[in-house]
């Protein structure tokens, strides 16, 4: 039987959950507008970042440099990352979160993509402030708007030759048309069973 929490403890958990949601949502808005410094500021000093098959970047400075390799927001570009379905798990000064991102990427006359990614992230309270400790973005599909999903997927990103990662990607997987279920950080809330692929 779990111990009963006081009202103050329950309010504290709600406030922590809201702070983590606000943190991740801010990340999405900064990415939308290619505000790479603002996005990098959300990470802990020893954080890691892993997006698609581009490998793992370690430390806030490396994450900032990686983000600055991504395209700028110029006339004729759209980078939307709508982050939905947050599932937050709190444990003291650490938290885990699973999100779904619906992505729209367009560069006029060149690129016209829609995609989905599942985030499995870890957060840490550092000096009383929640920060991203690990951002792991599993791209499940990218598709050309004109061809649609039935036209097949567009390959997900690979390592950037101009800025190699600190380590290879930690989970080998493929995006659509391959089938991949990103690992869950939590057990089933009803059965308590952990899903194993």
TrEMBL record:
Gene3D superfamilies: 3.10.450.50. This is Nuclear transport factor 2 family protein. It comes from Novosphingobium aerophilum. Pfam families: SnoaL_4. Residues 14-136 form the SnoaL-like domain. It comes from the Bacteria. Transmembrane segments: none annotated.
